[in-house]
Amino acid sequence: MSRVRYFGRRILLSIPVLILGGTFTFMVFRFSPIDPAAAIVGTAATEEGVAEYNRVRAELGLSQPVLVHYRAYMVDLFTLDLGQSWVISQGTPVTDLLNTYGKRTLWLTFWAVLIPIFVGIPLGVYAGLHANTKVDYAVSVFGIVWRAMPNFWLAIILLAVLSQSESLFGFDWGGLVVETSLIGTPDLSNLTSVDGFLAATKRILPPAIVLGSASMGSELRIARTAVLETVNSDYVENAKANGVPDRRIVWKHILRNTLVPLVPTVTNEAFLLIGGAVIVEVVFGIQGIGYLFFQAALNADMPLVTALVFVFIVVVVCINILQDLLYALIDPRVGYDAR
Amino acid sequence: MERNTHSTDAGTRDEQPHSRDDRPLSDRVAETPRPAAVWALGAAVLLAVELGDIADAVLSLGGMAVGAVAFGYSGTLSLVSADGPVGLLALAGFGFGLFVAGLGVATWTRVRAVHRVTDRFAFRTRQVLDGVVFGAAIAVATWLAVTLGVVDGLAAAGGAVQSLLGAVADLPTLTARETIPNQGYQTPDGTWHGTFMGLAPAYAWALRVVVVYVYTAVALAWVWVGYLWYRAHYRRVDWTPRDDVVRRLRSHRWGQFGMVVTFLFLTMAVFAPSLATTSAQQNLYEPFSHSIQYYDADTDSVRETLVGTANLQTQSEGYAEANFGPMSYDQYDRFHPAGTLTNGKDLWTFLAYGARVSLVIGLLSIGVSAVLATVFSLFSAYYRGLIDLVLVVVGDTIMGVPRLLMLILLTVILSDTWVAGLYNGGILLALILAGTGWPFLWRSFRGPTLQIAEEEWVDAARSYGQSATGIMRLHMLPYLVGYLLIYSSLILGGVILAVAGLSFLGFGITAPTPEWGRAVNLGREYVASASWHISLIPGIMITLVVMGFNAMGDALRDAVDPKSDDGVASSTEADARGGGA
Asked: Is position A219 within any domain?
C-alpha cells in the first residue's frame, strides 16, 4: 500500500470516530441521568419555574423527538455551531469561551511539550551514550521517579516549594527576573513585548514542568533505549570502523534513528496533556480549558460539557493524524499494511 | 466435513498407554508422599493461625453474594412484572439470559440433550436447541425449588453454615488487633494499661506490623517452596518454558523492586485492619459511636470520651500548636504513625484502608476490562473484517476522549444512580474505568492475537472441524495469558493513579471512605507548614505503588516476552499514567 493510500485510509477511519464521538456526546446530553434543563433552572416549584423549565427544554431541543434532535445536534456539531454555556457563563457562545480559555491552555501545553523535549531527550541520549555509569543510573532513576509522581501531588509540592523559595534556596521565585505571582492565569495580552513574554513564560513554567513530568520521564527512557539499540547496531559499528569521527556518528547516525520511536511517544503524551491540564490548571488556578471543563462538570453545565468533549475528540483525532503524518515522513519503512 | 468429529480430549488421552510419568498427580504424590505431606502440614499451620480472618472473609463474601442474588431476583421479578414495553423487554431479556445460561451449561458440562436424541438438524441448530432446552430446565428447576420450598431448606442450611463460620470467625488470629492491642492509656507512673504486655502503643503497633509482614512473607515463601518441591518431586517434565520465565525474573533487579513494593502494598490492603492503629469503623466512619479510655491528668482519673470528640482535639492544621506529625502521641495517648489528618483522624489508618479501596477498584476494573479486551481481541483476530473494523472505530472513539476528562464526565453524570451507592462509589468507578479502559488493553493484545491467529495450529484445528470458540479458548487464549499479566500489571498502577486523581478533584469515592488522593487534597494548603505529612506521605506512597506496578509490568514483559521491543510507546503507556492524573 502506498504512503498516500495509507494516509488516506487513516483519515477515512477518523470520520466514523468523529461521528461516533458526536453520538456519544449526544447520548450524554439527551439520556444521561442529569437533566440539563433541570440543572440550568434548578428545582422548578413555582408555576413560573415550570414555565422557565419548559422554555429552556425547548431551547435546548430536548422537547423535540429524539431523531429530529439528533439530526439537528449532529449538524450543529459538524458545522462547528457548538452552542453556548448555560450555567457557569450564561449566554456566552462556546466558541468565544474556547477562544479566551483555549489560548491559556495552548500556552501551557506548548511549554509542557517543549520542556520535556529539550530536557528529557538530551538527558536520555546522554545516559544512553554513557550506559551503565553512575550518571546513567542517576538519570534513569530520576526519570522513573519523575514519571511515576502523580501530577496533582507534584503540583502542590512544587507550589509549596516555590512559595517558600526564599527560606529554602535563598532566592525569591516571585521576584526572580520579573515580578509574578505563583497562582493565577498568565497574562497573554502582550506576548510581543519582552517583559510581557518573560512574565507569561515564567508564570507558566511551574505548571508546564508538572504537566510535562510524565512525558519527560518517558521520553528520557525511550531516548536512552533507542540510543542503546542504535549504538550496538551494525551500521554504527561499520561507521566507526571506517573512521567516522565520534561526533558525526552521534549526530548523524544515532540521533536520527533515535527520533523514530520518540515521535509516537511525544504525540501519545499529548493525550495525557489534555487530561493532566485539568488537574494542573485547577491546582495552579489557571483559567484554561481544563479548568473550564472542571467547572462545567461540577456545575452540570451539560451543553458546555458535551461541546467541550467533542472539541477534545476533534483535537485528539487531529493529533493522531499528525502522528501518522510525522511517522510517514521520518521513517519511510513504517508498515503501511497496518492491520 | 461434519463439524462434530472432534472427540473430547479425555477420550483420546485414555486410549494411550500409561507411561511412567503420565499418571495423574495424585499417583505421583502417593509414590513419594513426604514433601507433599510436609508442605501441606506447613500450609495448614499457616492457615490455622489466620482461620478466624479467613472465615470472616468468607462470611462477608457470602453475605455479599446472597445480597446480590436477592437483589437480582427481586429486580428481575419487578422488571418482568412491569406493564407495557418495559415488562415485555425485560421478559425478552430474561428469556435470552436463560438461553445464554443454558448454552453455557451445555458447553461447559459437554452434556448434550438434543445431540443425543436426534441428529436430524445441522450441528449449529442442535447447539442452539440445547441452549433452549437447558435454559428451560434451569427455569423449571428454579421455579420448582421456589414453590416446593427447597429454597427455604437451602436458606436454613445457609444459616447453619453462616453461624458455624461465625463461630470460627470469632477465633483469635495471630495478626488481629485484639491479639496485640496497641490502644491504651498511660498513668502518671509511666505504666501503660490495655496495651500488649504493657508496651507503649508505638512498640505494640510496630510489633503487630512486623508480625503481619513476617507472616505474609513466610506464607509467600512457603508457596515458593511448594513450587520448588513440586518441580523437584512431582512434575512430569524436567523443564517447561515457564521455568525460563522464572529464571529471567530472578535476575531482574528492577522487577524485584517492583515485586517487593507490590508485596508491601498488597499486604497493606489485605491486612488493613491489622496494620491500622485503630479500626476504620471506630476512627473514620463512625467516630461518634465509639469511645476510648484515656487518663485525664486534671482529675487524676481514667475517663471515657467519644472518638469523634477526641478527633476534634487532634487536628493537624499547619502550626505547631495544632499539629500531630508522624510518630507522635496525642493527648488521648493514641499513637499516630503517620500523624493525623486535618479532621483529626489517624492518617495511617486512612492510608491502610485506602490501600484496600484502591486495590478493590483496581482489581475489579482490570478484571472486567481484561475480560472484555481478551474476548474482543480473540474475536477480532479470528474473524477479522467487519468485527475488527467496528472494534477499531469504537476503541478509537473511547480512546479519543482524554481519559481523565471521560472519567470526570461519567462520574458526574452517573453520580445520582443507584450504582453510585455501592461501596461508596467504588463499584461505579471500577465499572467506568473498565468501560473506558478496555480499548487500551485491547490495542495491546491485538497485535499478538493477530499473530497467533495466523499460526499453523489454528489452521489445523480449523480443518479438524474445531468450533470457533473452541479454537479461541484452547489454541489462542493460552498464548495471551502472558500479555494479560504484563499489561494488567502496567495498567493497575495507572488505575490507582486515576482514582487518586479523581478523588483529589473531589469526584469518585465519597467521604468518609478513605482514598489516598483525598488525603493529598486535604493537606494541600499545609505542604509548606508543620503539617506537611498530610499530603507528602500519601503522595510518596502513590508514587511508590505506581513505580512498583510499572516495574513489575516491565519485568514480566522482559521475562515472558524477551524479544519484545520496550522502546516503542504502546497505547498502554498512556493508560499506565492514569490519563494524566
From this structure: yes
Nearest residue of B to residue A282 by CA position?
A: B505
Tell me the chain A residues in contact with residue B536 when contact means C-beta distances shorter than 8 Å. Answer: 157
Residues A149 and A264 in one domain: yes
Contact list in B for residue A124 (CB cut-off 8 A) is: none
pLDDT digits (tens, 9 = 90+) for B303-352: 888 999 889 888 988 888 888 989 889 888 889 999 999 988 999 999 99
ipTM above 0.85, yes or no: yes
Chain B residues whose CB is inside 8 A of the A320 CB are 396
CB atoms within 10 A of CB B382: 20
Instruction: Check the CA dihedral A191-A194-A196-A200 and report its sign.
Output: positive
Domain of residue A178, CATH code: 1.10.3720.10
Measured between CA atoms, how close is A74 to chain B, in angstroms? Answer: 16
**B residues 225-254 near A, CB within 8 Å?**
none
Q: For B550, name the nearest residue in chain A, comparing CA atoms only.
A: A148
Q: Which residues of A touch B572 (CB under 8 A)?
A: none
- Range name among B1-15, B300-314, B391-405, B484-498 with the lowest pLDDT average: B1-15
Closest residue, chain A, to B408 (C-alpha): A297
Range of the domain at A54: 3-78
- The answer to the question of residue A319 being in a domain is no
A127 and A64 in one domain?
Answer: no
Q: Is A156 a domain residue? A: yes
Cell of residue A47, nine digits = 408555576
Tell me the residues of chain B between 427 and 466 that have a Cβ less than 8 Å away from chain A.
450
Percentage of residues of chain A with pLDDT beyond 70: 96
CA dihedral A27, A28, A30, A35 (to 10 degrees): 160
A256 with A177, same domain: the answer is yes
Q: Looking at the structure, do residues A52 and A113 belong to the same domain, yes or no?
A: no
Residue of B358, B387, B405 best to disrupt the A interface, most CBs of A under 10 A: B405
Instruction: Provide the number of structural domains found in chain A.
Output: 2
Please write the tens of the pLDDT for every residue from A218-255: 888 888 888 888 888 888 888 888 888 878 888 877 77
Percent helix, strand, coil in chain A, to 5, is 75, 0, 25
A223/A114 same-domain check: yes
Q: Are the C-beta atoms of residues A88 and A304 closer than 8 Å to each other?
A: yes
Q: Are B509 and B518 in contact (CB under 8 A)?
A: yes
- Of A44, A78, A112, the position where a domain reaches its end is A78
Closest partner CB to A313 (pick from B388, B401, B567): B401
Question: Which of A46-60, B9-23, B64-78, B448-462 is predicted with the least confidence, judged by mean pLDDT?
Answer: B9-23
Query: Do A72 and A38 sit in the same domain of this protein?
Result: yes
Residues A7 and A66 occupy one common structural domain? yes
Same domain, A185 and A276: yes
Q: Residue A339: inside a domain, yes or no?
A: no
Which residue of B254, B358, B392, B401 is the best one to mutate when testing the A interface, meaning the one whose CB has the most A CBs within 10 A? B401
Reduced DSSP (H G I as helix, E B as strand, rest coil) percent helix, strand, coil of chain B, to 5:
75, 5, 25
